[in-house]
Model the fold of this input.
Amino acid sequence: MRELHPTQERLLELLKVHIDAPLTVDQLKDELEASSKSLVHHHIQQLEKRGYLKRNPHNPKDYVILGTPDKPVVYIFNYGKGQCGPSGSMLDGTPVDRVPIASRLLRFPAEEAFIIEASGNSMLPRIQPGDLVIARKGGQVENGEMIVCVNKGEVLIKKYFFLNDQHQLHSINTEVHPFTAADDFKIEGVVKTILQYH
Done:
């Protein structure tokens, strides 16, 4: 891979230093002594294109800096319909496959991704049986986010809520009632992308 342009190196360093309190494009322009905001945008896009930076398209201040840039195509472990491994986690079990994914579809480092195949009808119409669900391991979970979790030894895809000091698991399908998580409840990851095959 070619070396980064000096402006991109400086930009990358600024983004790293200010990741907890991201700078605006105007502030980046001033720090870089760039001639215009469009030039800053150009360099940001180049960092994304080359795999050094991943941004949330809905929130420009939400980004991840990658120490080693992701390749254009990455291989993510697919755990099938999700069997629990020896310690009750699906992620310590044996993957059934490795699925090639364009790294640009991920807004986080590829090594934090895993895939599970959806089954059942509890997340209809958003998730159909057979869809491949890409999740990000661990991380903070907000109320209402979709998660992959273990509950009563079973791997589930649900919407998560923490209400009245209890972990609540909800379905999108209104015919399936919400319930309180069991003692063995464990969040494996947050759902980020759904690859639909129907």
Observations:
- The longest helix spans residues 37-49.
- The longest strand covers residues 154-163.
- Helices lie at 6-17, 25-32, 37-49.
